[in-house]
Design goal:
The complex is a heterodimer. Chain A contains 22 helices and 16 strands. Chain A is an alpha/beta fold. Chain A has 3 domains: 16-133; 171-320, 2-Layer Sandwich (Alpha-Beta Plaits), CATH 3.30.70; 353-368 and 393-585, Alpha-Beta Barrel (TIM Barrel). Chain B is built from 10 helices and 8 strands. Classes of the chains: A alpha/beta, B alpha/beta.
């Protein structure tokens, strides 16, 4: 569009018609020009209209062009055309100083028709172009929006599936990939391996150097694992736990090699914040056919196996062992069944006599717990007591044993002899429990058993704790008259200092010394055991304690124990564990 | 509604866009059925709507002329819409081909269209951003690559501010822009006003039409609009109905209040 420059274009000043035309089309659409520029344009078109009116022959192309030029100059609307037709018809001849006779009869109609045709064509083309252009813009914008959405979704998905600290895949992604490795198409005949890795003693780093250093160490470990095991999915499950997915293994050794590479990578010293840190890791490896396993199975197995590696001291890999796992599961199932079994009354007590070596009188009986398991039959304590101790279930179980033993013992009244005391084992956890004294006092009150007829057996290890409370509690019970025996004396860390502080009544000497007495008396090993026993007896007597020998199976053993002054004996020779009734039938079994 | 950062807007041409409605008022065909339906509803309520748009566009044209003659060679047109007939770069670059223009619009279709129109023009750029985030506009790399903010810039916010609600703090938006500008810069503002014609019902009807778009309407008085020029010196004739702002002919300023838009130009002194 030319700038307006009055008179400089050589065109004539806008005449009356051009000015009227300009007024007519103003406001029909937006015109990006001044009124003067519009008038100038319309004057040029007026000149061509007037030529077309009189030229011979009539050329409709002039009219087409005029229509097209109007649209091109943005006089581009239905109203713009209508007003143009109107103003030309009404004013053109008059404003140009012409009369009807000057012009061919149908010339005006043909000229207007050609202008309208050219105008409508141009307007249609322009409309189509603009529609095409805006639709293209919408498509481009939509494509951009979709791309942005995909990118942001990808970003979001990355955030959701990766660990922000190390950038490694997280548990979510690992779980997805593991599921795909197990269930994916064509996987049914594959094998798969999982290496579950945990840093050894990582907590020490966090505690001593701070979490920031701990975090950087984790990043460094992650980087090394990623670098070393690039071909496998390495994920951080949280804390210092990492896991490697070994897909399409051909044999267990494939997974073991990955674990070894991981251990090597982790064990390289790392420089973190100026600290040279060397860490080791433990790895649980599970490798098996895809068929018949599930992600949950695999991860549980890997987790158990990792714990075996940890329990074995760390800095190693351990391979999953189905038998060991089954045993652990059974043990676990057994321990989980203890509370229910207590409720259902599946436990009962047997008693083994403690017989005086001097006169053969049964002076006491050790209560031994039995489990009448509905599925596994009669279970001896060694199959469940260890578990109960690990899980803490020993507290309710031991409480039941104490109460039941006292209840039964209170009913004992053998003919012609004083009633024997009942000896109950206390586990470490029971001894360390704050409520022990109250529990014992309550049981004695409830059952009416005199305190002197209760003996509590504690192991040396229960006394090894630096905590004073257990010693104090046992002291209170001893003051009440309860007998305190040290069980398995001589097999633990033989720290005699507690004998100074504790009102112990009796030492029970472990069966392995007694076992030595089965050999002939001239056997050197047997003689050594006899000497140890003799010293223990003289030590005990010096401290005014009685001594019970456990595991006495033969008359010969009994004889030699009697000879060295041992007070009491327990073992098959004097009576196997059995119901209390049997014990009371023969209270004074001859020695 | 607050969308999470990772969820970009979608393109919905079933929903009227103010940029394409404006194009329709100007006689353009850069619009879709939904835009035309909404625009026609607006014309039913306010028959002058096309005239308003044209008058506003003419104001833009005269303002750019004025600024070019005042020596401004950098333009920042925020809310530029569909850059069809007679846009800023056409006017400014006809006067000086070295003039630089940055268009900003929030409508992704308008931006895509602008980008196509401007392809090959290395003195004009378009960025997609919202007037309500002036700091993002100012920091945008395309803007930084095109405009030298140590030199005067004319900021054009024409027929847009009535889409900025008071809760979006228009005065703070303008202050942020002003503080980034060099002395000798200009601010061009226009927006719908009901100055002296309250209670005609048209305002309610117009606001009702625009509630269906992404951009509800906020109408402001002359005094409110004048306050938005805080920190700028208004050039003659101040804030007026847009046809009254330096008209080319006395007739073209007649019935100026029918244009519904008021506008003005302010200069940053110093």
């Amino acid at each position: 569009m030319d700038e307006r420059s009055d008179g400089a274009t050589g065109a004539g000043q806008p005449g009356a018609f051009a000015r009227a035309w300009a007024r007519a089309v103003s406001g029909t659409s937006y015109l990006p020009m001044t009124q003067a520029q519009l008038e100038e344009l319309l004057q040029r078109l007026t000149d061509r209209l007037s030529e077309a009116l009189v030229s011979e022959p009539f050329d409709p192309r002039v009219g087409y062009q005029i229509g097209a030029e109007l649209v091109e100059a943005h006089v581009a609307s239905a109203e713009g055309l209508g007003r143009t037709v109107e103003v030309v018809q009404l004013r053109l001849l008059r404003d140009l100083g012409l009369v009807a006779e000057d012009v061919e009869e149908d010339r005006m109609a043909r000229l207007l028709a050609s202008v309208a045709t050219g105008y409508a064509r141009a307007l249609r083309d322009r409309t189509l172009d603009e529609q095409e252009s805006i639709r293209r813009a919408a498509m481009v914008a939509r494509a951009q929006a979709e791309r942005a959405l995909r990118e942001s979704e990808a970003r979001f998905r990355h955030q959701a599936t990766h660990d922000p600290l190390t950038g490694l895949p997280n548990r979510t992604l690992f779980t997805e990939r593991l599921a795909a490795a197990l269930d994916g198409p064509g996987r049914a005949t594959d094998r798969v391996g999982v290496c579950f890795l945990d840093l050894d003693r990582f907590k020490v780093v966090n505690d001593s150097l701070g979490h920031q250093v701990g975090d950087r160490l984790l990043v460094s470990v992650a980087d090394r694992l990623r670098l070393t095991l690039g071909g496998h999915l390495v994920a951080r499950l949280g804390g210092d736990e990492f896991v490697v997915l070994v897909e399409r293994t051909t044999c267990t050794d494939d997974a073991v090699k990955v674990a070894e590479a991981a251990l090597t990578a982790v064990s390289e010293p790392a420089l973190v914040d100026g600290h040279e840190l060397t860490v080791s890791a433990s790895i649980g490896i599970v490798e098996r056919p895809v068929a018949g396993t599930s992600p949950v199975d695999l991860m549980r197995a890997a987790d158990s196996t990792l714990h075996w590696a940890k329990a074995a001291g760390g800095a190693r890999w351990t391979l999953f062992d189905a038998d060991r796992n089954r045993q652990e599961l059974e043990r676990w199932a057994l321990s989980a069944a203890i509370p229910g079994a207590l409720e259902r009354g599946e436990f009962y007590l047997d008693y083994q006599p403690l017989t005086s070596l001097r006169d053969g009188v049964v002076i006491g009986a050790e209560a031994l717990v039995r489990w009448r398991h509905p599925e596994f039959g009669e279970l001896r304590p060694d199959s469940f007591i260890g578990l109960a101790e690990e899980t803490g279930l020993i507290v309710p179980l031991g409480g039941w044993v104490l109460a039941e033993a006292c209840r039964e013992a209170a009913t004992w009244s053998p003919a012609g002899a004083p009633a024997p005391f009942v000896s109950v084992n206390l586990a470490v956890r029971q001894v360390h429990r704050p409520g022990l004294v109250q529990e014992v006092v309550d049981v004695l009150e409830r059952t009416g058993l005199p305190p002197g007829r209760l003996q509590l057996e504690v192991t040396e290890s229960a006394m090894m704790s630096a905590v004073e409370e257990p010693v104090r509690a046992l002291g209170v019970l001893a003051d009440l008259g309860v007998r305190i025996a040290i069980d398995d004396f001589g097999t633990g860390y033989c720290n005699l200092s507690y004998l100074r502080d504790l009102p112990v009544t009796e030492l029970k000497v472990a069966g392995q010394f007694v076992a030595g007495l089965r050999a002939p008396a001239d056997d050197p090993a047997s003689r050594t055991d006899e000497r140890i026993l003799a010293s223990l007896v003289s030590l005990a007597h010096a401290l005014e304690l009685t001594v019970t020998a456990e595991g006495v199976e033969t008359e010969g053993q009994a004889e030699r124990l009697r000879a060295i002054g041992c007070d009491t004996a327990q073992g098959w020779h004097f009576g196997r564990p059995g119901p209390a009734a049997r014990l009371l039938e023969h209270p004074a079994r001859p020695a | 509604m607050q969308r999470p950062d990772w969820a970009p807007d979608t393109i919905d041409i079933e929903r009227p866009s103010v940029a394409r409605m404006y194009d329709y008022y100007l006689g353009g065909s850069h619009n879709f059925a939904a835009d035309r339906t909404a625009a026609r509803a607006m014309v039913d309520a306010v028959p002058e709507a096309p005239l308003m748009a044209q008058a506003n566009r003419a104001f833009l044209r005269r303002a750019v002329h004025f600024l070019s003659e005042a020596g401004v060679r950098q333009f920042l047109d925020i809310g530029s819409g569909i850059p069809t007939v007679g846009n800023v770069h056409e006017i400014a670059q006809r006067i000086d081909p070295q003039a630089r223009v940055v268009y900003v619009d929030v409508d992704p279709v308008a931006v895509a269209h602008s980008r196509e129109i401007l392809s090959g023009n290395d003195r004009a750029a378009v960025i997609r951003e919202d007037l309500r985030h002036p700091e993002r506009i100012l920091a945008h790399p395309e803007l930084r690559g095109m405009l030298d903010l140590t030199q005067p810039v004319a900021v054009m916010i024409v027929a847009v501010l009535h889409f900025v609600h008071d809760d979006d703090r228009p005065a703070e938006i303008l202050r942020t822009l002003r503080e980034a500008l060099a002395p000798g810069s200009y601010l061009v503002l226009s927006q719908a006003s009901d100055e002296g014609r309250r209670d005609t019902g048209e305002r309610d009807e117009a606001e009702r039409v625009y509630r269906r778009t992404d951009s509800p309407l906020v109408i402001r008085s002359r005094a409110e609009l004048t306050r938005l020029f805080d920190g700028f010196e208004l050039v003659d004739p101040g804030v007026v109905w847009v046809p009254q702002w330096r008209p080319e002919t006395p007739e073209s300023a007649e019935d100026a209040e029918k244009a519904v838009f008021m506008g003005g130009v302010g200069r940053l002194g110093g």
